[in-house]
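Example 420, ligand N-(iminomethyl)-L-glutamic acid.
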Amino acid sequence: MSSILLKNISTLVQVDSIDHTEKASLLPIKGEAMSSLPQLQDAWLLLREDKIADYGAMDTCPVTADQVIDATGRMVFPSWCDSHTHLVFAGSRETEFVDRIRGLSYEEIAKRGGGILNSAQRLRDTSEELLLEQAYGRLQEVMRYGTGAIEIKSGYGLSVAAEIKMLKVIQRLKKMTGLTIKATFLGAHAIPLAYKQNRAAYIKLIIEEMLPQIGEEGLADYIDVFCEKGFYTVAETEKIMEAGRAYGLKPKIHTNQFNCMGGIEAAVKYDAVSVDHLEVLNDAEIACLQSSKTIATLLPSAPFFINDHYPPARKMIEAGLPIALATDFNPGSTPSGRMSFVVSLACIKMRMLPEEAITAATLNGAFAMELGHSHGSIAKGKQANVFMTKKIPSIAYLPYAFGTDLIDTVIINGKIIDKV
Ligand code: NIG
Ligand code: FE
């Protein structure tokens, strides 16, 4: 049995006294409680095989382990849980980035056939092997940035063959890395050009051809729809969620990025695990989320990159909602999978306290992937996924020094990941 002991940890962050070997049923951290962020000073942490064996204060430190790491002056965090990404994609879209600098908006670019359709064209022309190679590189990069569990969506295929190709790549990434990955089917990301005059036929294809194959081969955990003007209507979103339900796929829905149009109410009606984006959000929608179990997932690096406004995080916290933070890593609105930067943006642009942002990026992110029992905090029996920082003076220093890589050592499934 291999074990790693981290000792003299200046602060062990997000400690959780529940014994997760018991598989306790738990809830995400809501509203004001997000700022409590339980910590232990001068601590040790013992990892055995791929699980957290125990932790405690230094005066109770076990004598030895197979490997001992002296963490003097450093903090140890649970790995980031990135609950919303589109990390499988082909090529890049920096020409659209330049178009936006010249004055076009994200929506105008999409209307011209750029945006998601641009990525879909590239993806269809890319082999599964090449797609896998590119996505594997990105996944290794985000693991070194401290991500220890991730959700990845399809949605750049937009044909039966290409959507299945994307989902197969996600399954292969799981096998190659051993990382905990949740797969989401996002066939309804855009209407493909060929179906522009007959959107009902494309939705039929999703429901009658894509979903049965995905269900049969167990290729996805969740279903997503881009519920937004110019993309999918609320009625279409409901129809697709209904169809997904027959295959046991719970919804995680893109909505309220640009418009309030009823996407949140629809997602809540279908017991969505999360609603994601929420750059625009009205009081009725906040009230709807208050009486639901759906998690509000905010993706601040998307409005940062496309120069849009940010979700009203403070208002949501005051309303007692649980918030998760994720990267939205994708080639169009967020070509970055760096969770530390998302945490900085949450603090700087949405006025979340460092403690609130860290809770949202760890434990609540885990819940947004239904992994609250196994990931996102330092607890006995949870997955041995942690990162150790460089020497830092306080927790707030992490989001404060937004451009510095402060992560020193990454451990995933009880193994140290090389930082090349
Ligand atoms: O979450 N908004 C919809 N989907 C992605 C962006 C997709 C793209 O531009 O390629 C998002 O921001
Ligand atoms: Fe997204």
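Summary: Residues 86 and 370 are 18 Å apart (CA to CA).
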